[in-house]
């Protein structure tokens, strides 16, 4: 099968996060199954010419252009990508758009529909109710028509399914598709070498208000004296909380063991995670964080809040600790894992097993291929 995937934005620091990792993981797995996969995106932040590969997979990248100031990724477009897409889509069987409210993926999806090409979309929790002054007309003109006409709309969680119905109505062709990650051959170093003398608690995510890096810094400050050998590390690009995090670190007495090292290239994420003992993501309303799955794939116990889309699985599989969004609750969860190396190893083992059983790329790719096949054979779109 010939498949064309489009995602909004690719950059060397992985600023667009999970959707890019999902697209690349899917493309690699489908290619290994013998299918022809093309991944395209708007891009920026690279030195020199745009690369023709990203994280080890061939990509078609086109310069991103900002047309709406101070609007994040939503205000980006790429005329050269849209022009290229019109020709590239002619020779593919299915078009898979990682859809968001932006001026890259929505126009791409609309072009595919006008050409009557089989279109499936995956929204990654990025489309829900909005009263935004730009979002409301965009939904009327593009978002709703695209969702209603797509041959399949893929969702991650029950909440995302409800959000999509709220935005575009009940007459959608919906299908559940979990994210997946490759299972690394080598697990976290604690599993190979035994508990660390100086265990590291790791926050690896964008420094964005929703992800609440300051909650991690607060917990680290409180626990640095309780666990004098422990280390607390933040890794991620600044997306609004950098100044506040820097100021908070300056106030901490244990600043030498509480650090922020900036972003890490996506292809080096697992290598960085492997050194840690605990992965912490204090986010609220996080639909399906890829970084949590990646940490679990290495055998790291994870700490997430009860509004995280992966919280039920973490709880059921004893793959870590699910806590409330109260900063003190996050602190208690981290203290519990730092104090008990055997619990860390046990929960880490459960985490790696859960990824292998439910979120491995071969099983996700097989389900995705079934969705593609149904979309390709479908001749009509819902009214």
TrEMBL record:
GO terms, molecular function: glycosyltransferase activity
Coiled coil location: none
SUPFAM superfamilies per record: UDP-Glycosyltransferase/glycogen phosphorylase
Domain Glycosyl transferase family: 199-353
Ranges of residues in domain Glycosyltransferase subfamily 4-like N-terminal: 16-183
InterPro entries linked to this entry: Glyco_trans_1, Glyco_trans_4-like_N, Glycosyltransferase_grp1
Record GO biological process: carbohydrate derivative biosynthetic process
Keywords: Glycosyltransferase, Transferase
Matching PANTHER family: SULFOQUINOVOSYL TRANSFERASE SQD2
Protein known as: D-inositol 3-phosphate glycosyltransferase
Native source organism of the sequence: Kocuria turfanensis
């Amino acid at each position: 099968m010939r498949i064309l995937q489009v995602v909004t934005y690719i950059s060397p620091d992985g600023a667009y996060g999970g959707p890019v990792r999902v697209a690349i993981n899917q493309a690699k797995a489908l290619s290994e199954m013998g299918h022809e996969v093309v991944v395209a995106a708007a891009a920026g932040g690279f030195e020199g010419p745009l690369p023709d590969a990203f994280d080890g997979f061939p990509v078609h990248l086109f310069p991103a252009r900002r047309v709406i100031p101070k609007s994040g990724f939503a205000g980006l477009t790429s005329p050269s990508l849209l022009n290229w897409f019109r020709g590239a889509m002619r020779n593919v069987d299915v078009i898979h758009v990682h859809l968001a409210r932006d001026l890259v993926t929505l126009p791409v999806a609309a072009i595919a529909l006008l050409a009557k090409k089989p279109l499936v979309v995956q929204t990654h929790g990025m489309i829900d109710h909005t009263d935004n002054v730009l979002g409301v007309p965009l939904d009327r003109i593009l978002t709703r028509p695209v969702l209603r006409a797509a041959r399949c709309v893929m969702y991650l969680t029950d909440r995302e399914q409800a959000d999509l119905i709220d935005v575009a109505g009940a007459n959608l062709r919906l299908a559940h598709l979990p994210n997946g990650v490759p299972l690394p051959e080598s697990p976290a170093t604690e599993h190979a070498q035994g508990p660390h003398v100086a265990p590291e608690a790791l926050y690896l995510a964008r420094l964005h208000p929703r992800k609440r890096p300051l909650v991690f810094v607060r917990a680290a400050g409180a626990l640095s004296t309780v666990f004098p050998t422990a280390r607390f590390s933040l890794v991620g690009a600044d997306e609004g909380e950098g100044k506040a995090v820097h100021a908070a670190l300056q106030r901490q007495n244990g600043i030498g063991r509480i650090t922020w090292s900036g972003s890490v290239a996506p292809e080096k994420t697992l290598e960085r995670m492997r050194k840690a003992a605990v992965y912490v993501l204090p986010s609220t309303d996080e639909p399906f964080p890829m970084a949590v799955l990646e940490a679990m794939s290495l055998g790291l116990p994870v700490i997430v809040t009860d509004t995280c889309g992966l919280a039920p699985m973490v709880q059921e599989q004893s793959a870590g600790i699910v806590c409330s969004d109260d900063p003190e609750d996050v602190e208690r969860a981290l203290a519990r894992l730092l104090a008990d190396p055997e619990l860390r190893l046990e929960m880490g083992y459960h985490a790696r097993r859960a990824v292998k059983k439910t979120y491995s790329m071969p099983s996700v790719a097989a389900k995705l291929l079934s969705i593609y096949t149904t979309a390709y054979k479908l001749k009509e779109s819902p009214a």
